[in-house]
Specification:
Belongs to the FliO/MopB family. There is one protein chain. This protein has about 150 residues and is an alpha+beta fold. It is built from two helices and four strands, in the order H-E-E-E-E-H. A four-stranded antiparallel β-sheet has the order 1-2-3-4, with no helix packed on it. Strand 3 and strand 4 form a beta hairpin.
């Protein structure tokens, strides 16, 4: 009887080892399938980027210079078309030409961009100084005292 129970124990351990191997095989197949799906997603995103990049090069005659929202669905857009700037009103499913003017030359654009950047930097610095003065003069909410007390 002792040998029979030993044989049964050996058979059970072999059966459990086979079950463990089957579980690992299923896990491996699942991991492989997941890796394949992720590879397909990356390949599709790469192809879409390449296709969109190729499309973007073809629009050399039309260029959006700037765009500003003036409402929830309304925008004013400046578009450059062959040396002419068109000021367009876009909204409600319509595009309306508001104004047409010649496009400035490249040096003029660079000058205005640098002047705009300087003015922004100056305004930002002024706002930071004003904010710093405003926060220093406020009362400390934790202690209930101002800085002069």
């Amino acid at each position: 009887m002792n040998q029979t129970s030993a044989t049964q124990d050996a058979a059970e351990s072999i059966g459990s080892a086979q079950g463990d191997l089957m579980g690992l095989a299923v896990l491996g197949k699942t991991a492989l399938a997941l890796g394949l799906v992720i590879a397909v997603i990356f390949a599709c995103s790469y192809l879409l980027r390449r296709i969109n990049a190729a499309r973007g090069r073809g629009d050399r005659h039309l260029k959006v210079v700037t765009s500003t929202a003036i409402g929830q669905r309304e925008r004013v857009v400046i578009v450059e078309v062959e040396g002419t700037w068109l000021v367009l009103g876009v909204g409600g499913g319509q595009v309306t030409t508001l104004h047409e003017l010649p496009a400035p030359s490249e040096p003029e654009r660079a000058e205005s961009a640098s002047a705009e950047a300087r003015s922004f930097a100056a305004r930002f610095a002024t706002a930071l100084r004003a904010n710093a003065r405003g926060t220093l003069g406020r009362r400390d909410s934790r202690s209930g005292r101002g800085e002069d007390e």
